[in-house]
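F.,

This is the one I mentioned.
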């Protein structure tokens, strides 16, 4: 698909910042610019900041994509953040904590922080919104997250996509959704930050599993079994931490799971495939020049699961493949318990109380059940 030319929208007069000029930070900056904001990105490397500001391109991460004129970049974090009413964070999850003090010192008093990241912090096992809240002692009503089936390149190409903005404050979730509303990007809202954030983290782990079996050469039955049982693991885990089950059946759970497990654009899927092909973890990390968040999140997620007694057999096996203690050929969706006794399958995948985004699906489901 050919990338569309730059849009020229009416300016809303809103000034926003995007911290991180990788693939998602740059795509999101384009969304925000197309939606009418003046966007200043922070890029680590001055030469990349210059390319974004002058050539309106980020050839390292999104070659061939034209950015709106309203998007500029700077290597100076204070310059990027000061004056912004919304600050979107798109750096690798493990690096966020280290960046926050510098961000805080330049923040507008009433600025909201919006995490675009999909990882859990090693050592603390915290979600990114929790890292922000804890590190900066920030009011949760001024923290939001955005998640969903959002492969950066497809969105930069303006392929129609939906996402979820979530905050304890519905007002802030709506502000974020409106700031990112373009003809190709539609954002729903909810107040289930835990479910929305964990959906994005957990699907990365299932995508690693899918990549691994793909690399081994297993086909669609194996993958469908892992995706379906993976969704059960994701839901059990997130609900144990207070998530609403419908969130996991929506865009931030099932939606992102499908996109990430199906797409060769996914770095987690790609990393898994290389492991399945027989490369070891060090080789895979060296081979990838972008962030595959799932690799760092496996252990924190397993530690959290253990703390609440949640069973995650697929994620356990992914961890064993990463550690080199399980051969990729032996990764399976664990359809029985360890002693071989078949488990009952929970089949009510669709919840009774569906969120707005899955209401049509619920109607279809009820129709099918009544047939
Ligand atoms: N790429 C995608 O399709 C999507 C990514 N995300 C999430 O967005 C977050 C960022 O991902 P991407 O933009 O894809 O990653 P990326 O690997 O494309 O870019 C990361 C950016 O952060 C910078 N960076 C790397 N290490 C850093 C460090 N130690 N300190 C500060 N900056 C550092 C890099 O220079 C780069 O600009 C991740 O949590 C990812 O899960 C979420 C949705 C879609
Ligand atoms: O989160 C994503 C799509 O929603 C991107 O997935 P990867 O990080 O695996 O590329």
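My design for it:
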């Amino acid at each position: 698909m050919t990338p569309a030319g730059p849009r020229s929208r009416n300016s809303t007069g809103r000034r926003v910042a995007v911290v991180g000029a990788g693939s998602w930070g740059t795509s999101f900056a384009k969304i925000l610019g197309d939606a009418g904001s003046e966007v200043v990105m922070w890029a680590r490397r001055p030469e990349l900041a210059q390319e974004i500001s002058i050539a309106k391109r980020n050839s390292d991460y999104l070659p061939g994509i034209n950015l709106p004129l309203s998007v500029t970049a700077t290597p100076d974090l204070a310059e990027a953040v000061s004056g912004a009413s919304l600050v979107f964070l798109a750096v690798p999850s493990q690096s966020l904590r280290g960046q926050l003090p510098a961000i805080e010192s330049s923040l507008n008093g009433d600025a909201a922080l919006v995490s675009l990241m999909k990882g859990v912090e090693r050592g603390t096992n915290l979600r990114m919104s929790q890292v922000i809240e804890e590190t900066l002692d920030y009011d949760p009503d001024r923290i939001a997250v955005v998640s969903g089936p959002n492969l950066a390149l497809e969105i930069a190409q303006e392929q129609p996509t939906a996402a979820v903005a979530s905050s304890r404050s519905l007002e802030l979730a709506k502000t974020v959704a409106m700031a990112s509303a373009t003809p190709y990007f539609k954002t729903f809202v909810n107040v289930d930050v835990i479910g929305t954030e964990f959906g994005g983290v957990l699907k990365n782990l299932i995508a690693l599993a899918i990549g691994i079996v793909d690399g081994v050469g297993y086909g669609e039955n194996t993958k469908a079994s892992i995706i379906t049982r993976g969704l059960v693991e994701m839901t059990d885990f997130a609900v144990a931490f207070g998530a609403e089950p419908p969130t996991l059946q929506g865009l931030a759970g099932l939606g992102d799971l499908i996109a990430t497990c199906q797409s060769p654009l996914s770095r987690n899927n790609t990393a898994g495939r290389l492991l399945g092909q027989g490369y070891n973890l060090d080789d895979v990390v060296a081979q990838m020049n972008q962030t595959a968040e799932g690799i760092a999140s496996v252990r924190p997620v397993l530690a959290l699961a253990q703390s609440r007694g949640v069973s995650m057999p697929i994620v356990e096996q992914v961890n064993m493949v990463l550690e080199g203690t399980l051969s990729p050929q032996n990764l399976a969706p664990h359809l029985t318990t360890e002693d071989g006794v078949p488990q009952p399958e929970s089949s009510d995948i669709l919840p009774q109380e569906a969120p707005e985004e899955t209401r049509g699906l619920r109607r279809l489901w009820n129709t099918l059940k009544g047939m």
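The radius of gyration is 20 Å.

Talk soon.
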